[in-house]
Amino acid sequence: MKLKYILPLVLLVLVFSCSTDDDDNTNPVNEVEGLLLVKEIVNGNQTIELFNKKGMFETGYNEISIRLKDNTTDTYYEDAILSWMPIMQMPTMQHSCPKSAITKADGKDTVYKGFIIYQMTNIDSSGWSLTLDYTIDGMDYSVTETINVMQYENQNVASFMASDDSRYILALIEPKDPSIAINEMKVGLFKMQNMMTFPVVEDYTIALDPRMPGMGNHSSPNNTDLTYNSVDNFYFGDLSLTMTGYWKLNLKLMNSGDEVLKGEDVTEENEASSLYLELEF
Asked: What is the pTM of this model?
């Protein structure tokens, strides 16, 4: 073979080799990009990583992303089955709180997701623990760890007894970033079945009357009551915010028969409902 044919062949091999090396060294996708680590829980050869956008748990609605790492290979499990149970330890009793199932995050290989609604905490953020049960390749594991839950600055969750002698938990989910506009308002509503079980309440109505106590207690136009959405099991309505500042979101909870279970109309004589949530921006 002549030299003029050998040199192009060698160059072609070198180019292909370099291209292959570049492909092998491509950085893996960061599936928790934009999230902050809240807690690592080590359980033998596995580590559970808990993430959210703030890097901490707070009272109210917490959306949580989870990864499960194999400590021996430093890789993440893609086919685990997980469940959890948050527990608040009181002086004479303990209870849980509303929570979702844990499911695989859409479009992710190693990330699982769910939510927990902490309805209370201690002044020093103590009192809560989290038990995680999980299955890998047919083997069952469990681990319990104490966690810190900070008190949110405004009332973004309400726990209350209603006129039907049931305890409910109502949590504000949206808007996370309110603006001077008609905002989509989203809340979760749950009934306390027992100390450990909080099923979703379906087909109620939540009347909305937002007010600004520091500005003459004025309201705003074009608000709508919140109604149940069976697709994601939350309640949605329109929240009109006409200026920045502190807003009290006065609410009335009505069952499927339009009976008022909690809350009152805002009038000149009654400046606020006994059922409300807060936001400030």
From this structure: 0.90
